[in-house]
Specification:
By secondary structure, the protein is α/β, with parallel strands linked by helices. It contains 9 helices and 20 strands. It has 2 domains: about 280 residues, no CATH class; about 45 residues, no CATH class. It is globular, with a radius of gyration of 21 Å. The chain starts with 14 loop residues before the first helix and ends with a helix.
């Protein structure tokens, strides 16, 4: 595996100096976890395009920029409310440059049996955090050999504070839960490693928004989200990335599903110069449902890369993927979707769809669907289509007096609507529809 020389890797250049800060900022007892993770990362370093999993996603900007932890940034509620979803009615946990901001958060009125807040304030749940953290984000015992965990290791090496969503058995949180990560860096690019742990007990239910936005400047954001769903738990996980166009964003999500659980991911990417999101779902119980939906818009020279992996390890489960990309100017889209059906996973029903619209002749889409099936009684399909807007549809709208730009916008919205409509929070869906039109008009 080819890696950037560690001597030129600014992501770990100041690691030893920052370690005492991380130790104070988060919960005690993570020392061994951090030490093992930094050792693993230093064996590989920043990937290059010669690494198969990053073939279409150059990360040379990570070696060319000076970074710092942006602790101490001072934002007001008004600053945050002006961002993409800042004023949504929700239980809200806010981090600025990776540091918990209690003055900007609002986590009162929780039902009994629920904790939503930072690791640092979750003292009574310390054992639960340590039991789950790091036990979900791995590929141990999984099929395949091309998985890449170096950014998970890097995030764990910098493990400090984070967000915990913990619901006990039969607890349903009716209000939306909004986890906000803000970049605010006026001089030097901010470096942050958000960590989110979501644990839903048996028959628990929640709707979570995980959003990444920029107030000022730019940064490198490398988040890891771990989700564990007990039997019959249900989670709608909306993830919105709209960071500045000078930022780099590399995310990893790991989901562990028990029997009859339902996981729905709505993954929306509008921002960052380079954006990468890996979603890995391990279906470890029977009669589960896994829904992975995504809408992506890349303009200018943006690169938006999505990798998905679903491990069907048990029988009688269903998974459905719909990933859509809208690419204009010199925008680049990447999709790599893997589905593994294990030998015991009979009666699996897995469907994967990847579609892209190219709005300019210089836009590029790279797509690679993968199926590895080791059971014989299954229904598995995948399809990928890449094309331009249909001329007859444009003509139909133009013939009715609709200007070209507006006609194109309507057709593109109709293309993306299949994904946006999966978001069941009306207020959020409306704001994203407006953001989509704004992005296309820019």
């Amino acid at each position: 595996m080819t890696a950037t020389s560690l001597s030129s890797d600014p992501l770990v250049a100041a690691y030893d100096e920052l370690l005492p800060v991380l130790t104070v900022d988060g919960l005690p007892g993570f020392e061994e976890l951090r030490a093992a993770a930094i050792r693993r990362y230093r064996e590989s370093g920043i990937p290059t395009t010669r690494d198969e999993e990053f073939k279409y996603t150059p990360l040379h900007a990570l070696t060319e920029t000076k970074y710092r932890f942006g602790y101490g940034a001072n934002l007001t509620r008004e600053d945050v409310s002006g961002l993409l979803l800042g004023d949504v009615d929700a239980i809200t946990v806010v981090f600025v440059n990776g540091q918990f901001a209690p003055d900007l958060s609002s986590t009162d009125s929780l039902p009994n049996g629920a904790y939503i807040g930072s690791f640092s304030e979750a003292t009574e749940f310390e054992d639960d955090i340590k039991a789950h953290l790091g036990s979900i984000a791995h590929f141990d015992g999984r099929l395949g050999s091309t998985n890449d965990l170096r950014f998970v290791d890097l995030n764990t090496a910098y493990l400090g504070d984070g967000t915990l969503v913990f619901l006990e058995k039969n607890v349903a949180v009716e209000r939306t839960i909004h986890i906000v990560h803000v970049v605010s860096a006026s001089e030097v690019a901010a470096l942050s490693f958000p960590r989110i742990l979501i644990v839903l007990g048996e028959n628990a239910e929640a709707k979570v928004i995980e959003s990444y936005v920029t107030f000022a400047g730019n940064g490198v954001t490398i988040p890891v989200t771990e989700v564990r769903l007990a039997a019959s738990a249900r989670l709608e996980h909306n993830r919105l990335q709209n960071e500045s166009l000078a930022s780099t964003h590399i995310a990893n999500i790991f989901v562990d599903q028990a029997t009859t659980s339902v996981y729905t991911s709505n993954n929306i990417n509008f921002g960052a110069s380079v954006s990468r999101c890996d979603i890995n779902a391990y279906v470890g119980g029977e009669h589960c449902e896994t829904w992975l939906n995504s809408a992506n818009v890349a303009a200018g020279s943006q690169i938006i890369d999505n990798h998905t992996r679903i491990d069907h390890a048990q029988p009688n489960c269903q998974s459905f993927e719909v990933y859509k990309s809208i690419l204009k100017d010199n925008g680049v889209g990447v999709f790599n979707g893997k589905i593994f059906v294990y030998e015991d996973a009979q009666k699996t029903d897995a469907k994967q769809t990847n579609q892209a619209i190219l709005l300019s002749p210089t836009a590029t889409m790279n797509t690679k669907p993968q199926l590895e099936i080791f059971a014989d009684d299954v229904k598995c399909t995948h399809g990928a289509t890449i094309g331009q807007l249909r001329e007859d549809a444009l003509f139909y709208l133009r013939a009715r007096g609709i200007p070209l730009a507006e006609a194109q916008g309507l057709l593109v919205y109709a293309f993306a609507a299949e994904v946006l409509e999966k978001i069941t929070i009306d207020e959020v869906r409306g704001k994203l529809e407006a953001a989509l039109f704004e992005k296309l008009a820019s």
